[in-house]
Amino acid sequence: MELLRSHLAKVRIPEPTNRIHKEECCISFDTPRSEGGLYVDMCSFLGFGKDFVRWNFERTGNPVYLHIQQERKPVPEDRPLKKPTLLAIGVEGGFDNQEPEYETTYNIVILPDYISLPFPSVELPEKVRLAADGIILAEGAAKKEQLAAWTAEKKKVSEYALTLQQLDNGVLVHSSGWKCSKCDKTENLWMNLTDGTILCGRKNWDGTGGNNHAIEHYEQTKYPLAVKLGTITADLKSADVFSYPEDDSVEDPLLAQHLSHFGIDFSSLQKTEMTTAERELDQNVNYDWNRIQENDKDAELLFGPGYTGLVNLGNSCYMASIMQVMFSADSFVSRYYENRSLREAFDTSPADPTVDLNTQLTKLGHGLLSGKYSVPPQVGNEDGKVQNDKQEGIPPRMFKTVIAAKHPEFSSMRQQDALEFLLHLFDQVERANAGTPDLDPCRSFKFVIEERLQCPSGKVAYNRRSDYILSLNIPLHDATNKEQLEAFHKKKAELGLEGKEISNDEIVRPRVPLGACLSNFSAPEEVQDFYSTALNAKTTAIKTAGLTTFPDYLVLHMRKFVMEAGWVPKKLDVYIDVPDTIDITHMRSKGLQPGEELLPEAAPNEEENDASMELAASEDIVGQLASMGFNYLHCQKAAIKTSNAGVEEAMNWLLSHMEDPDIDDPISSGSSKAPPVDEGSVQTLVSFGFHEDLARKALKASGGNIEKATDWIFSNPEASSSSMDTDSGNAVASSSAAQTDEAAAVPDGSGRYKLMGMVSHIGTSTHCGHYVAHVVKDGRWVIFNDSKVAASVDPPKDMAYLYFFQRY
């Protein structure tokens, strides 16, 4: 006890603002449930596993630790499974994740001799008792950052409910036998609360569901509220009321009154339909998409080095799928596992290792690849039998916290786009290795794209930019099963006339070869309003694209999400036929060729004159925007302000400037003159790794805002500065020396690749649904579905969202 008293200066009583790491080791995935438990430094409040606590003592000299050990209690064999009624985890009514119960013991341990004193004990110094109680009672750092996934938001009261005007049209609705008034649909029916019309709901992206008659009725009448028939019971709060102008499920406090207007006695109705939230819950529980997850396959569960799963922290599957593929790439394995020990990572980390990206990547790499945590859990019941043979996986909480620290979306518990996360990861890892670029594992994914533009004069311009992702459009017209598709659509139309739906087994989807997508990337493309310095006029140029370098790892992004008329997102229901090996040697671009003449650079005075030339808005861009319902004048301004770069660029500008005080001012002569780009902002983007010409274009398209410009670049991977005004015209003819330096900074080799991994998406949007990774390990395909790791029986190679190829 005297020894402990001599170290009281190294003991702190935690404050409410302190982060208490009592759930997990900061350098490994050891927890209080691990062998040896967890040691919490009573001065820094960092947690350490038994193999790592001495490192902390040697580094800091902090000798006093609260040791936490948890032992699993036996699980009763007859423990019932509860069906979830709430879209949540870890809350009453949510998913029962069958968490076993644990017995927790505490001790005060003094290093270096591991002298252990029981806690609680009145014999301990008061400061130690207060500090230990503070640690035990405090909400842990991980708990603060771990919210339950899929928690449905509480419905708000509709602003239209209290003032709803119902028509006295004599409509009376019966208690059963409903049918859409415009088709033969008898399910997914909605009654408009203004006029009592019964109509079918929205059509799903895969063709199932209703025929959109309810929403079409709203668009024609602007009657705002509808209730889903079959969800009305004596408990009116469970009824599904939808507000079209608010585009959300809402609460109608006067629903009883509104129903009685049409003669509906809700007290006698029985529930026959799922609410919107329940349908979403049903999809998450049942996982309708068995193909990608291979749910119907009797897969062999895998354990050992390289076969460690990642616990879903709540809609974190986008991160888990990407990291499983990354740590199957040699560059990440070498940087954060083979050539970097945990001790080295800890010794070179800042005082708080939990906030250092390289340290947490090393921790994650060792956690995934060492095999230490990839063992079948021994969950025993009262008879000693093993109930579950799936591994628990490791929770990447600290990694998620540090990688998302400066990103409001990734730090949330909402589902995210795996592609956006991958680009964010590359950006953050590149920054973390800025002082030692040779160690940057992202370099193996980087390549240079070269765009060639030829104007009617015959002269050419070249523009180069680096990228990590090759984003590919899917040319549906190149489908190889056109006859089957034609027969399918014909049959579907015939059944539709009869009020029937085609079965899932009969659905035929387009099959497009990956080669067609690659060819489409390199195919000639017209660039409108290209300013030719040879002709001193705007004209139409022909653009082709290729790669000047081939990366060690080639990532292909399939653009399955497109925008339909009205700026409505749609997921293409398509299969991509992807071979195990590809050769893209033919896509190599070799720059200026003998006999080609570059477009002349504009003289400084010409630049000023050209910049002051009045730019006319592209009628094509304006027409497309106007067809979406935007003000025609606003559409013209958007096209001019983005120099006719494209519909998407104009749309982004328009959405960002709708509230501008001068948005309704008429376009005056000379108003189209592009505002000067701040050179400081240009250099900031250049420091991020973007080319100066691309930086200028992005800043112009985003009104000079650096953050929006960065988003614009990531959202427009094929952006060409050559479609801009004369500033860009000069940029495309930039010095070949600078281009050569860029190419030298990234790897290059042959264009032959083999498929080594893929990330597949399940759902109608990249921001909802589920992500799963498939990776080739030890010569076979392996599925990584959060914490589940198994041999893949039928990898869905034709359904992935991201494909990862390795040079061979």
Automatic annotation (TrEMBL):
The UBA domain sits at 616-657, 676-716
User: According to the UniProt record, where is the region Disordered?
Assistant: 717-745
> Which EC number(s) does UniProt give?
3.4.19.12
The residue ranges of the USP domain are 308-808
Q: Which reaction does it catalyse?
A: Thiol-dependent hydrolysis of ester, thioester, amide, peptide and isopeptide bonds formed by the C-terminal Gly of ubiquitin (a 76-residue protein attached to proteins as an intracellular targeting signal)
- Which Pfam families does the UniProt record give? UBA, UCH, zf-UBP, zf-UBP_var
Using the record's annotation, list all stretches that form the UBP-type domain. Answer: 156-266
Q: Which keywords are on file for this protein?
A: Hydrolase, Metal-binding, Protease, Repeat, Thiol protease, Ubl conjugation pathway, Zinc, Zinc-finger
Mind listing the GO molecular function terms for this protein? cysteine-type deubiquitinase activity; zinc ion binding
Superkingdom to which the source organism belongs = Eukaryota
**Which residues take part in binding Zn(2+)?**
C180, C183, C200, H213
Which N-terminal stretch is annotated as signal sequence? none
What class does this enzyme belong to in the EC scheme?
A: hydrolase
The keyword Zinc-finger belongs to this UniProt entry's keyword annotation: yes
InterPro entries associated with the record: Papain-like_cys_pep_sf, Peptidase_C19_UCH, Ub_carboxyl-term_hydrolase, UBA, UBA-like_sf, Ubiquitinyl_hydrolase, UBP13_Znf-UBP_var, USP
Ranges of Polar residues compositional bias? 717-739
Q: Which GO terms describe its biological process?
A: cell communication; protein deubiquitination; proteolysis; signaling
Give the residues annotated as active site: C317, H770
The family assignment reads: Belongs to the peptidase C19 family.
Q: Any idea what job this protein has?
A: Recognizes and hydrolyzes the peptide bond at the C-terminal Gly of ubiquitin. Involved in the processing of poly-ubiquitin precursors as well as that of ubiquitinated proteins.
Q: What is this protein called?
A: Ubiquitin carboxyl-terminal hydrolase
Source organism of the structure = Rhynchospora pubera
